[in-house]
Amino acid sequence: MRSLRLILLFLRNSLQVEMEYRANLLASLLTALFSGALSILTLLGIFGRTAEIGGWDLPRMIALVGVSMIIEGLIDCWLYPSLNAITEYVRQGELDLLLIRPINSQFMVSFRNIRIWFAGNVVLGILAILYGMQAQHVLTFGHLALCFLLIGAGIAILYSIWLAAATLAFWFTKVGEVSIIAYTLMETGRFPVSAYPAWARFALTYVLPIAFITNVPAEAAMGRLNWPGAALGLCAAAIALAFGNFFWRFGLSRYSSASS
Questions:
Q1: What is the Cβ-side half-sphere exposure of residue 88, based on CA atoms within 13 angstroms?
Q2: What is the pTM of this model?
Q3: Pair 79, 185: CB distance under 8 Å
Q4: DSSP designation for 195
Q5: Residue 256: partners with Cβ closer than 8 Å, 6 or more residues away
Q6: Cα separation of 95 and 98, whole Å?
Q7: Residue boundaries of the structural domains of the chain
Q8: Using alpha carbons only, how large is the chain's radius of gyration in Å?
Q9: To 10 degrees, what angle do helices 141-167 and 178-188 make?
Q10: Sign of the CA dihedral 115, 122, 104, 157?
Q11: What is the pLDDT along the chain (260 residues), one digit of tens a residue?
Q12: With contact defined as beta carbons under 8 Å apart, do 29 and 187 qualify?
């Protein structure tokens, strides 16, 4: 409950800052609408010439794009503003002030900055998933609940990768734009892993686990995922979170205060 209250406090503070620039709300909504419409139009153009992509038909692809849009929305409103700031905390010495506060440091840097205006893609992604499920006549509470559970697992994996990459700032001070990697992964994840060559399928499943981030939740929405497959996705998320936490604590143990 204390963590939830802190997240709500961070959200309120972010809203107070963002309310100074109310035009951002309209701009972000229009951007989300344009991006979502462009993604769907691209799919319609592709399926005007083919019946499937990697064994996925149009409704399944729309659900997959919906999952990608949800995760991209969470990147824009949460992961990017919060985790991308770690490098600046280290470089400018602000991390010292965060470490002396009676709050878990990883929790603090993970949720300190939230930009709610950029959550438009999340709403559009949910609508796309619902449409794809309805078109396949698989819209049930069980399928939807499993889909969102695995979306949570996917965002946990992406969060852990991003946190580990940002933690490198303890050694290199100025880490390159991790967001470039994240957005590249999401562009790759807009297509089924089965559409890629064998070596790429292996890499996108076990090296850069984009399959667990986007494909597995979409399969769950379509009722094509069994519980062992869902359990594997949840285990991957648990392992990723454990690694992210370990690497963050390891980085802190090597961190030298900016005042030293």
A1: 8
A2: 0.88
A3: no
A4: G
A5: none
A6: 5
A7: 2-253
A8: 19
A9: 150
A10: negative
A11: 677 787 777 777 777 766 666 666 677 777 777 877 888 888 888 888 888 888 899 999 999 999 999 998 899 888 988 888 888 888 888 888 888 888 888 998 898 888 877 778 888 899 999 999 999 999 999 999 999 999 999 999 999 999 998 888 888 766 656 667 777 778 888 889 988 999 988 888 888 888 889 999 999 999 888 777 788 889 989 999 999 999 999 988 888 765 55
A12: no
C-beta pairs of 19-27 under 8 Å, 24+ apart in sequence? 24/117, 25/117
- Taking each helix axis from N to C end, the angle separating 120-135 and 23-47, rounded to the nearest 10 degrees, works out to 30
| Distance of alpha carbon 227 from alpha carbon 167, whole angstroms | 34
The one-letter amino acid at 129: I
Question: Which stretches of the chain are DSSP H helices?
Answer: 2-18, 23-47, 58-74, 80-83, 86-92, 94-99, 105-111, 120-135, 141-167, 169-172, 178-188, 198-202, 210, 216-221, 227-253
As a whole number of angstroms, the distance between CA 7 and CA 114 comes to 9
Amino acid identity, residue 11?
L
